[in-house]
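User: Sequence recovery, please. Input:
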């Protein structure tokens, strides 16, 4: 009886180890597949963005290129180069929305010291001539 219990315990341990190895391999392979899909997706989005910017925004007046693309806060962050100037812009993960500029809501904005404030103009009353009949 004692040998039978040892065999059962060994079989159960072997099954558990096999299941864990199988689960680990599955997670690894799915992660690799997602990484490859994400790289392909970022390439498609990069091409779509550069084509749109050059054709519709710059319209032949300059040529833009994307020097870098990375993921940031569920968006793609692109380093956009137009002539000698570089800009950070963002694209939605589905490649539908382009954000030329982004505002970080966690960073407080300092008011500009050089912006003059002008008083609100006061409307001047006008007289309406009376019409006589």
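Assistant: Recovered sequence (133 residues):
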């Amino acid at each position: 009886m004692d040998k039978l219990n040892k065999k059962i315990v060994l079989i159960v341990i072997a099954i558990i180890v096999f299941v864990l190895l199988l689960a680990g391999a599955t997670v690894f392979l799915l992660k690799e597949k997602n990484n490859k899909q994400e790289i392909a997706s970022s390439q498609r989005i990069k091409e779509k963005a550069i084509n749109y910017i050059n054709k519709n925004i710059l319209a032949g007046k300059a040529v833009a290129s994307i020097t870098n693309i990375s993921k940031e806060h569920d968006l793609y962050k692109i380093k956009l180069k137009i002539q000698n100037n570089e800009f950070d812009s963002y694209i939605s993960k589905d490649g539908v929305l382009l954000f030329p500029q982004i505002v970080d809501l966690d960073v407080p904005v300092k008011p500009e010291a050089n912006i003059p404030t002008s008083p609100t103009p006061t409307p001047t009353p006008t007289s309406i001539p009376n019409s006589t009949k």
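The chain has one domain: 3-99.
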